[in-house]
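Hello,

Our lab assistant flagged a job as stuck in the queue for most of the afternoon. It eventually completed. Since we weren't sure the result was trustworthy after the delay, we are filing this so someone can double-check. Below is the sequence as submitted and the structure that was eventually returned. Let us know if re-running is recommended.
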Amino acid sequence: MPFVVVLTGGIGCGKSTVASHFSALGVPLIDTDAIAHRLTRAPSAQLDEIARVFGAAALQENGDLNRPWMREQVFADPELRKKLEAILHPAIRQAVEQELSRLAGHPYVLLAVPLYFESSGYHDLAQRVLLVDCLPEQQISRTMQRSGLSRETVAAIMQTQVTREFRLQHADDVIDNSGEEANLHDKAIKLHALYLGLAKNFNKST
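-- returned structure --
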């Protein structure tokens, strides 16, 4: 397995933007959200199981996951969220491991896990945790602009995630994304050099 840097952060912090700067430097990206989207487009075994557990309302007419409906269900009922995670998370983890094996020749890999701190599913893979951080009000405004969600919905989502203070305390590295995007590339370049050095030592030891 290559050296793995987990990229994480609260909703609306700009994880995808930061990831694009690392991709521009030639760093492979494994995005667990992208994998989840792929698994919830028809046809898939996971969608079949979701329909069995949640009923036909969980799917759109084309067979894909009915995301707005499912979002309402799982935020209203933690037990339903656990049921959805039990269906999707093992398949996502398997896909991640397959991608890591395929990318074994690279110095390091960026693994985007938005809810890294909220679950333990990827803690055993991470050699380094990179947090993308911004002010809570920026999280709300950016998410509203990007997704069209109401302020109340975004705030409710944030309540299900660990606190900003917790993330800052437990991350190895932090990119502050509360300013201009033009500064992000320089920050990515500095961390890229750090990770190349850490990965070199990691690969020697393994």
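-- support follow-up --
The delay was a queue issue, not a problem with the job. The result is valid. Residues 37-102 form one domain. The longest strand covers residues 3-8.
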